[in-house]
Design goal:
The chain is mainly alpha-helical. It contains seven helices and no strands. It has one domain.
């Protein structure tokens, strides 16, 4: 059975690239929030504001996961626990926002971005559970990490585009 250190080493190039990309995208969303603060934050469109916060959070989660995967001598148990905690907090925030904004969810094109993010969180949570189980060598853990990070990257990029080109009311 493969150990976590070897798995992390094998995936180091992927997570290094993901850290760079997600770090740049965190900056992009920050700039979009800065230039559209009145529209995207308090007093503006509540659904777009929630989407902006969610996009920023998704990219930040990708950055943190990538950085943790690059930490030398980090254990599978620590990574699994970290993933489950971050995912639980993320899913809780998404569900709270969806419940709070339920009357705005008729705008399905915007609302679907939250569901894609939820799916990415679910895959990362499953990867965390697999790490806690010690099932590293099966290939499932790597597939779940790849799927979760890819979905969050896709969801975040789609949402970031909407935020950047969003017209002020």
């Amino acid at each position: 059975m493969e150990n976590f250190g070897q798995m992390a080493h094998d995936w180091a190039n992927f997570f290094s690239a993901l850290a760079q990309v997600s770090g740049a995208l965190v900056g992009l969303v920050f700039v979009a929030l800065t230039f559209n603060a009145k529209t995207l934050l308090r007093g503006g469109d509540p659904l777009m504001g929630a989407l902006a916060r969610q996009t920023f959070s998704d990219f930040l989660l990708l950055l943190i996961v990538s950085m943790l995967m690059l930490v030398p001598h980090f254990s599978a148990l620590d990574m699994g626990e970290g993933l489950l905690i971050m995912v639980a907090l993320g899913i809780g925030r998404i569900l709270r926002d969806l419940f709070r904004l339920r009357e705005h969810l008729r705008r399905l094109r915007i609302a679907q971005r939250f569901f894609l993010s939820l799916l990415g969180h679910a895959f990362l949570g499953a990867a965390g559970a697999e790490l806690l189980r010690g099932a590293i060598g099966s290939g499932l853990t790597g597939s779940l990490l790849l799927s979760g990070t890819s979905l969050l990257l896709l969801s975040g990029c789609r949402s970031a585009w909407v935020l950047v080109v969003h017209e002020k009311p």
